[in-house]
Amino acid sequence: MTSPDPRAERRLAAAIAAGDPEAARTLCEEYLPQVRTSLRRRSGLDGEAALEVAQETILAALRSAQFFRGESSLLTWLCAIARRKTADHYRRAVRQPASLDGLTAEGLAIIDTGPLPDELAERSELAAAVHSALWLLPDNQREAVLMKYLEDHSVAEIAAELGRSEKAVESLLSRGRSNLRRRLTALAEAGKGKGGRGK
Amino acid sequence: MTIPRWLEANLGRILKARARSVEAGPGAAEAGPGAEAQATRAVAETVVLCLAALRPRNRWPENTGLYAAIRSRLAEDPLRAAAAFGDRHLPELRADRAVLARVVSSRTGVGGRETGMGATRASGVSRGDWSRWSSASSR
């Protein structure tokens, strides 16, 4: 993969900010698929939702192109917008809570018994509950947790990426796990009370 | 097993399983890269369409009308997109109606000055949608 040309990216952003439709087209055609791929990998959003968030990301970028300074690559800048849009998506979802019966009945059962079968790890209710809890964490905690558990980065690598000390990253991970536990426990308790099918 | 230990042991597996299933799931495997490229082009076309329509006034898309337009355009329904877009932006676009019609025509090959009810029905725009746009435009 070739590294992006910072000057070309700044020119593209400037052209978009100046109202050039062809520059807007270029942003859509070149970056929408990349943003969508990144969302699929990290956000837990499926096809339709990932496309919607990717579109919202591109539109937000079109509106704020004048603020792109080229301090990072255009894709990095877009991914930062995508993370905010994803968190917004999950916050909206919390206001319209999905049924947690699946988490209650099966999630609580495996909490008691230990190992998680692959097919259960892929259950959408469980993944949705975990992602929902995860994306409601503060940004820095969520990023640290995703890098550690989804992307298998070491604490040292995460520290370098986030520009923090290893000790600070360990603290972020600890707080992230703690908040995640609290949120998942609350979800499971709420589901248990509601469904009555859990243990 | 307690919840903290369960979480520690399984969080990575859940996140990775979800990523795998999303990447291989509907909208990815079924649609394939060709369909994705087509959807991307549709978004790009819509953005260009809307920007071109706004260009005379040098305005930027900044409201839900554009979102509605893009969603409609994704359903391969350009006139509906234009109608949704026009509904939202009409106060500004009244004088630019001809421009918008020309842009719709050049980008989609449908309508132009002839974007009347026949073309509208063919493209799936409801009579109400289109007449709202047309009557407001001619006010």
Give the overall shape of chain B: elongated
Strand content of chain A: under 5%
Mean pLDDT of chain B: 52
Tell me the quaternary state: heterodimer
Q: Report the count of strand segments of chain B.
A: 0
The N- to C-terminal Cα distance of chain B equals 70 Å
How many separate domains make up the residues of chain A?
A: 2
H and E string of chain B = HHHHHHH
Layout of helices and strands:
The complex is a heterodimer of chains A (about 200) and B (about 140).
Chain A: H1 6-17, H2 21-42, H3 47-63, H4 74-95, H5 101-113, H6 118-121, H7 124-135, H8 139-150, H9 155-162, H10 166-195
Chain B: H1 3-24, H2 32-54, H3 64-74, H4 78-93, H5 97-108, H6 117-123, H7 127-138
Written description of the protein model:
The complex is a heterodimer of chains A (199) and B (139). Chain A is mostly helical and 199 residues long. Chain A is 76% helix and 0% strand. Chain A has two domains: 6-95, Rna Polymerase Sigma Factor, Chain: A; 101-195, Arc Repressor Mutant, subunit A. The longest helix of chain A has 30 residues, at 166-195. Chain B has 139 residues and is mainly α. Chain B has two domains: 1-30, no CATH class; 33-138, no CATH class. In chain B, helix 2 packs across helix 3. Chain B starts with a helix and ends with a helix. At the A-B interface, helix 2, helix 3, helix 5, helix 7 and helix 8 of A face helix 1, helix 2 and helix 3 of B.
